[in-house]
Amino acid sequence: MPIAQNPILPGFYPDPSIIRVEDDFYIVNSSFEYFPAIPIWHSRDLVNWRQIGNAIDRADQKLDLSDVAPSGGVQAATIRHHNGTFYVTSTRIKRQWPVSNYHFVVTATDINGPWSNCHFIEDAYGIDSSLFFDGDKAYFLANRESSNPRFEDDAEIWISEINLATFELVGEKYTLWSGTGGIFPEGPRMFKRNGWYYLLIAEGGTLHFHTTTIARSQSVTGPFISSQRNPILTHKHLAREYPVHNVGHADMVELKDGSWWGVALASRPRGGFYDGGNVKWSFGGYYRNLGRETFIFPVTWPADDQSPLFAPATGRVEDSYEVTGLTEFSQADVPINFTPESLAIKWVTIRDETQDHFKLTAENSIELELQNSIEKTFLGTRQTSWQFKCSVKVDLAELKRGDLVGLAAYIREGAYLTLEIQLSDNFEITVQAASGKQATAAKSTELSKFTIELTGNDQDYSFSIPELDFAHTLDGREISCDMTGSHTGVMIALIGKSDYKTKVQFENFQIF
Fold it and tell me: Is residue 15 flagged as an active site residue?
C-alpha cells in the first residue's frame, strides 16, 4: 500500500494549492522574493512528487521583483484548471503597499509551459487570490481590509466575476465571510458540492494559532454560514512540544473514485523554545529553519454535508497516511546539482529575473560572476532536511583583492551563517554569523582550489574544508523564521561580492 510521508514537500514550500487533471495531480507553492517563482509539482499517487518547473521562469513574463522586500514578492499561489487551461493566481507584494494591480494570473494549456505573461488585475485589493469556475462564469476571490472591523488586522473575503479574456473584474464585489474571529482571514478557495458552495479559508495568522475554517452557502455570492465544526484543522490546541505546528492555509482535491484529500502548510520546529521575539500573536516561539512545508491528509464528508472532516481519524496531521485507490507511480524529484535541469528548476536567485550572472561551463560545473552585493550574487537551493550534508569545490584562481566568495545557510538579508573567503596575501577563510553574535573561526591558506562542506544536524551548522583540516560549528537558531521575521526558509547558497565582476568556478555540488 503506498504511504504518503509527511511533509510530502519538505523545506520552504508554503501555501500549497492542489488540483487533479484526469490521473495527474499538481501542487503549486508561494516563492516570495525568489526567482524562478511559483514551484509546480506533479504526482499520480499523492506519494511521489517531482518538481516539473516554475510557473514564472522568464523575465519577459513581466513579474518584476525589483522592488520587493524579504518575505515580500509572490505570495499564496492557487492553481486551477478549466476547459483545457491551467490558471495560477497569486499576489505580488512590493515594499510599499497596498497599491492597485498586484494580483495577477498566469495561464498555460500545457502544465510544462510555456506560461503566459503576468496578467495584473486592476481594482483588486487585498491578498491571497484564487479563481472559481461555476458553469460558464469565472469568479475572482481574495481578502481585503474589513469594511466593518471587529479588531485590529480584521479582514473579509470578497468575490467578483472576472472576464478571463481581458482579466477584468465584472460587476459588483460581494463580501462573503469574515471567518470565525481569528486575525487575518485569508487564503480563500471555493468548491461546489451537492448544490452547496463551500468557502475554505485560513485565519489566526500563520504562527501557532493558524487554523483552517469553512463556511457554506447555496449562492456563490452568499450569505455564507460558518460550519459548527470549525476550525476544521488546527494544531493550536496542542502543546508546543508537539512536532508539527502552524497548520493551516489548506486546499483539497477530489479523486476519480469520489474520495478527497487535503494539503496544508505546517512547520517542524527544532532547537527548543523561546518567549517573545517577534512572535506577536503566539505564546512564545520555536525555531523553524525549514520554513513552512507542505503536508497531506485524508478528507471525508459526513452525511450532513455541513463541512468536510480534515484528518478525520485523529483531527490532526499525522506523520504518514496510506493512500488507497491510486496506482503507485514511481518517480524521484529533480537532483540538486549543476545540470541544466537542476539549475532551471531547483536553483533560485533573489529578485534577479535575468539570471545572467551564472552559467554552466562543464558537467556539474558553473561559473559564477560575483556582483556588488551578496544578494545579487546569491544562487541558492532550499534546505529540505534537519540532517544534511552538502559539498562543493571552489576554484579561486581569478579572485581579486577585496572580493568575497563563500557558502551560506541563508534566510534573509543580514541573517545568514557563512564560510567566506577573501584574498589578501593568502586566501583568508572565516566562518561567522552575519549578526556578529557568535564566535568566529579563521584559517589562512595558499591553496586556491579546495572543497567546502556544510553539515546540518538540527540547529548545528558545521562548515569545514577537509583539505585544511578546518571546521567550525555555528548555532542556527538565529536564522530561524521567527527570529528573523521571515515567511521563507533557510537556503543553501553560493554567495559573493566583488567590485570587479570576478568569475569564480564551482564544481561538483552534492547534497545528501
Answer: yes
